């Protein structure tokens, strides 16, 4: 679900620096984003296991992405998230196009007046080249210590939440 809440004070996340450099190259300066005309043909989505503050993991249940306690035999059901950068948004805010299934499906907030989280059958690498059309599937990631927040780019002030 999408919740409201405050953003964390950003901390440099070395994994995200590597992701952005792999897809986009190094930044010329803090203010200027260097983006190539196309994706690095060898670049692939990065994959992460995500847990909420209650240590619940993500899994697919009847086509819905849900947070649940995954212990024992259920642990194999955990669904990692996949990310690629959105090169058309402000790089210093860490805009990530987010999905699952190894990057084969995207997590979208939709295009209506209110966010409606849904899975779309579109590969993240296709969204990487779509410019502003990838915004509904983009989340600004902030990192503060061991906690990450994901703010919907299409709905500022709204965050991914398991509440």
TrEMBL record:
GO biological process: cellular response to lipopolysaccharide; cytokine-mediated signaling pathway; inflammatory response to antigenic stimulus; positive regulation of gene expression
Keyword Cell membrane: no
Cellular component GO terms, alphabetical: extracellular space
Annotated keywords: Secreted, Signal
SUPFAM superfamilies, alphabetized: Cytokine (SSF50353)
Family annotation (InterPro entries): IL-1_fam, IL-1RA/IL-36, IL1/FGF
Subcellular location: Secreted
Primary site of residence: secreted
GO molecular function, one term: cytokine activity
Domain of life according to the entry: Eukaryota
SMART domains per record: IL1 (SM00125)
Protein family membership: Belongs to the IL-1 family.
Role summary: Anti-inflammatory antagonist of interleukin-1 family of proinflammatory cytokines such as interleukin-1beta/IL1B and interleukin-1alpha/IL1A. Protects from immune dysregulation and uncontrolled systemic inflammation triggered by IL1 for a range of innate stimulatory agents such as pathogens.
PANTHER family: INTERLEUKIN-1 FAMILY MEMBER (PTHR10078), INTERLEUKIN-1 RECEPTOR ANTAGONIST PROTEIN (PTHR10078:SF28)
Designated name of the protein: Interleukin-1 receptor antagonist protein
